[in-house]
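Whiteboard transcription, Tuesday session. T.W. wrote the structure tokens on the left side:
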């Protein structure tokens, strides 16, 4: 777990048997897709796609992180029937390069559906890499959230269809809708 603030600090200090309150599910999810499907996950973006690895027929996953020690849950991924490609920015394991550059290198002619989650830079890069191609991409965005239920607008982003709240209107958006 990456400790990045008060909330994750508290979560990381929890012990087996501790309890907490959780409000879920919130927002939308990835749509059902037909045909070829590629799943892309960058860093902590692996968490939202776990269920896809189990529910999608023969998915192919590209999962990347900055370095080998930042790759999580490889044992869980191996238990799914997905084909997966690991990448690291520094080349410490797997393919060298970030997820989108590896995708572009290994799947230059891919057409079909892409389901992705990762940091904004990865999503922007995916948008550029798929522009003008016969690809439909849905991305789960990462955003700082306060209320989580659409009340505070703290997670609002600009889209081609006006302002949207990542927590309530997303977190999954058609990448064609995004302004990045
Ligand atoms: Fe409050 Fe999204 S976190 S509106």
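and on the right, the sequence the group agreed on:
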């Amino acid at each position: 777990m990456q400790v990045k603030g008060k909330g994750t600090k508290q979560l990381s200090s929890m012990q087996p048997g501790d309890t907490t309150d959780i409000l879920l599910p919130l927002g939308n999810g990835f749509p059902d897709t037909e045909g070829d499907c590629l799943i892309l996950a960058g860093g902590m973006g692996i968490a939202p796609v776990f269920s896809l690895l189990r529910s999608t027929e023969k998915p192919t996953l590209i999962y990347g992180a900055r370095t080998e020690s930042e790759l999580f849950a490889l044992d869980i991924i191996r238990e799914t029937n997905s084909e997966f490609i690991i990448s690291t920015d520094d080349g410490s394991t797997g393919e060298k390069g970030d997820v989108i550059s590896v995708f572009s290198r290994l799947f230059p002619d891919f057409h079909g559906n892409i389901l992705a989650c990762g940091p904004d830079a990865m999503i922007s890069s995916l948008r550029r890499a798929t522009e003008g191609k016969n690809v439909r991409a849905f991305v789960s965005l990462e955003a700082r959230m306060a209320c989580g239920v659409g009340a505070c607008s703290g997670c609002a982003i600009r889209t081609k269809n006006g302002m949207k709240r990542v927590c309530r209107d997303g977190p999954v958006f058609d990448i064609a809708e995004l302004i990045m």
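Someone added at the bottom: The first strand starts at residue 37 and ends at 42.
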